[in-house]
């Protein structure tokens, strides 16, 4: 479904060009749940960007930096997941008078994610874990066939991480998610892609992997 063949992923141009991943070949298939692991700075976000480019609007996107608007309510932040589907006029009206259909759908999502009690609150008043759930809710509200996430469950507790990953994976075909919790990688995913030093060091079914093998990705 998505294929990168002998791809070199880099940042910058000319003498400022920095190769992050060199000559990598990957094939991602519909229905696969893939965990993306590796030390900080190894290139997980860079790889996700390249896959996003391939999938375009077919993939919901939950970015690492979240991109939430602090002064706006949880409802309005989640509504932004479908902003492009409505006219500017309708979106502006929604700022003052929430659209009843959108409100109901977003309230249901928030209930599932355990943030229904803060639906009307500005995002700037939430905890880090609550913000993560708002960012995930916004991506789920996009209702796209596939899901790409850059450490979406980094700041939630293990129990919540478990629940959130279940919600994400049961609603999407291909899921490619960067994370650092190795236990969650083994329990929620079919496949692990591990990056080290500019290359794909591991690409295997989780059924054949142990925590020790995943730990090795984090050693220098
Ligand atoms: N926009 C950019 N311009 C130049 N270099 C960049 C840019 N974004 C990332 N890099 C560099 O590319 C390399 C890989 O970064 P990337 O963000 O993909 O790593 P990561 O594995 O996602 O890290 P983390 O786990 O900390 O989020 C790093 O050396 C980083 O400094």
The number of helical segments is 8
* Poorly predicted spans: none
Distance from first to last alpha carbon:
33 Å
- Could you give a short account of the major beta sheet? 6 strands, mixed
CATH architecture: 3-Layer(aba) Sandwich
The top-level CATH class is Alpha Beta
Based on secondary structure, the structural category is alpha/beta
* Outline type: globular
Number of beta strands: 8
| Relative strand content | 15-25%
Pfam family, one: ABC_tran
InterPro entries: AAA+_ATPase, ABC_transporter-like_ATP-bd, ABC_transporter-like_CS, ABC_transpr_LolD-like, P-loop_NTPase
Organism: Kushneria phosphatilytica
Keywords: ATP-binding, Nucleotide-binding
């Amino acid at each position: 479904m998505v294929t990168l063949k002998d791809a070199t992923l880099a940042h910058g141009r000319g003498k400022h060009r920095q190769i992050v991943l060199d000559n990598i070949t990957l094939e991602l298939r519909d229905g696969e749940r893939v965990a993306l692991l590796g030390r900080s700075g190894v290139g997980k976000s860079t790889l996700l960007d390249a896959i996003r480019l391939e999938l375009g609007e077919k993939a919901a996107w939950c970015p690492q930096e979240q991109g939430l608007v602090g002064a706006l309510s949880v409802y309005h932040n989640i509504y932004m997941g479908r902003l492009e589907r409505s006219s500017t006029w309708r979106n502006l009206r929604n700022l003052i008078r929430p659209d009843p259909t959108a409100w109901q759908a977003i309230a249901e999502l928030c209930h599932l994610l355990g943030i229904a009690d803060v639906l009307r609150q500005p995002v700037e008043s939430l905890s880090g874990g609550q913000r993560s759930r708002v960012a995930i809710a916004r991506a789920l509200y996009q209702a796209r066939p596939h899901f790409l996430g850059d450490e979406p469950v980094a700041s939630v507790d293990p129990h919540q991480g478990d629940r959130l990953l279940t919600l994400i994976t049961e609603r999407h075909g291909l899921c490619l998610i960067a994370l650092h919790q190795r236990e969650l990688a083994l329990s929620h995913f079919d496949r692990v892609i591990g990056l080290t030093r500019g290359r794909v060091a591991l690409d295997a079914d989780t059924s054949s992997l142990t925590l020790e093998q995943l730990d090795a990705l984090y050693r220098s």
